Amino acid sequence: MPSSVLMPLIVFFALAVPICLLMWRVFWVGGELRRDAARGRDALDLARRVDASLTELAELVDELRRRKAKPDETADIIRAAADALDLSVQEAEQVDKHVGSAEGARRLVPEIERAQRAVALIEHGRELMVDPIGEGYGEGEGSVKRGYLNLLHAREAINATAREIAEVLSRTRTPAPRRRGRRG
Q: How far apart are CA 14 and CA 80, in angstroms?
């Protein structure tokens, strides 16, 4: 092969390889940033849906604790809210799995489980309130009130956690520089 052809080919490959590696790295980092942003949006969307569900439930429980709604009429709605929270936990596990690599981020699953415990406490109180003759009516009212407050706090914590996750994921995460050389 004549040197007039060989020399341009060598220069071409010498320039093409670093450019290709640089482009690959840019696309890879861009993909990571897009995935992180998508997970942040997923966290905010999940929190928005859970907030809407818990707000409706809180209004119903408020009516129950103020004796505007009958305990036996609210059973299906409370159970539906508990089922919706079960599905939300599954979604939150997916978000938390991705956030696991981000430092300092709180998790959504414990906060949604907190809401589940509040709903369980409300359901327990509602069951005690169904029998107005028994001595458990007062205890049932107390459980509903405690569950209601726990539900409000859990809702606030879910929103705060989702915002925090979105913020952590929106920050540019660059890999830590690796030290080259001997290990000492």
A: 64
Is the CB of residue 121 less than 8 Å from the CB of residue 151? no
Handedness of CA 161, 165, 170, 175 (dihedral sign): positive
If one counts every other C-beta atom within 10 angstroms of the C-beta of residue 155, the result is 23
Section 108-119 average pLDDT:
93
Domains of the chain: 8-170 (1.20.120)
Using DSSP, state whether 177 is helix, strand or coil.
coil
136-170 vs 108-130: helix crossing angle, rounded to 10: 160
pLDDT tens, position by position, 117-160: 999 999 999 888 887 676 777 888 889 999 999 999 999 999 99
Q: Which two tokens stand for residue 178?
A: 């690796």
- How far apart CA 174 and CA 106 sit, in angstroms, is 20
